[in-house]
Amino acid sequence: MTYRILTLNSISARGLARLPREHNEVGSEIERPDAILVRSADMHGRSIAPGVRAIARAGAGFNNIPVAQMSARGIPVFNTPGANANAVKELVLGGLLLAARNLAPAWLFARDLDGDDEAIAAAVEAGKQRFVGFELPGRTLGVVGLGAVGVEVANAALALGMRVLGYDPQITVQRAWQLSAAVEQAASLEDLFARSDAISVHVPLNAETRALVNAARLALMKEGGTVLNFARGAIVDEAAVLAALDAGRLHAYVCDFPSRALRGHARIVALPHLGACTGEAEENCAVMAVEQLRDFLENGNIRNSVNYPDALLPRLPDTTRLGVANRNIPNMVGQISTCLAARQINIADLLNKSRGEYAYTLLDVDGAVSEELLAQIRAIDGVLSARIV
């Protein structure tokens, strides 16, 4: 079978090479696509073709994708958590050093020096005390969110001699195994802010995390603290940060999200969204996105979906595989099984997983499944999509 895959952005050639040309048509002009590969293109308000079965985002954030709409259509949306973690970690460490040693204002000062070498040397000696900084060992970094990036940041900060506090009530077992035992658990966000010299946020943007860094929590921080935001701009209340900087409570704000309000402030370093902007990260994200998309199209397996549960079922030989997405309501598997049993079709293996309002079922069945039977399964109240894989 040949799959048609629409690309909405330039995708790394290394990732696209994982899609064999004999089984896939890939490009930015594909009509009637089976799947979509995207990086940063805004898909809100865009018409998503009826035949689309999956969307894969080559990156961790997915605010540019209408996830709720796709969920209701039975379309899994994939992202690539961890693929760009090292790139973001390195930028966070760079942000820490920029703030600690006042490197950005010091560079601007040195860049604008004028005169001969003697005059420049005299100006350097007269002006360098304005940029006296501090060292990182012994200071405390609070890390909010211990996913792929947060764990790497926490472990790296320990290696720099910092004390590290972490807060993530939803940390996964996988990330817990990766996290150094030397990272201390904060009892709450307020506890973390109160005990930290610097805060780094690594959480997705949603209703709960919007303005997570706000005036009340900034007031708890030690005087002269630093806030680092390489997650999403709206996680930090800009007005509260500006007020804390102007009052002298905060030492610096380093972020990846420039805005008019932040522009020109002496204690703000706003970078142009460089978090995943390395060749290595772009390649890693593309490879991971393509492999997850291909596994879903060819085997029905789901890994790293943001809206449907992980569902991995080894394929039994000499069977027909069905993939069914449905609302998470009672008796869905029973109704699907009844449809199969009425046609004397035996279920050789089955996996049913749920996540919130939605569920996903993989079935390996003995014998062929007709289009008529597939239409009958699709007609079950609560089924959102069903296909022969």
Mind describing the biggest β-sheet? 7 strands, parallel
How much is the radius of gyration in Å?
25 Å
- Mean of residue pLDDT values: 96
Query: Which class best fits the helix and strand makeup?
Result: alpha/beta
The percent range for helix content is 25-40%
Count every helix, treating DSSP H or I runs of 4 or more residues as helices: 13
What is the subunit organization of this protein?
single chain
Order of helices and strands: EHEEEHEHHHEHEHEHEHEHEEHEHEEHE
Task: List low-confidence stretches.
Answer: none
Predict the CATH topology of the largest domain.
Answer: Rossmann fold
CATH class of the largest domain: Alpha Beta
- Largest sheet, order of strands side by side? 8-7-6-9-10-11-12
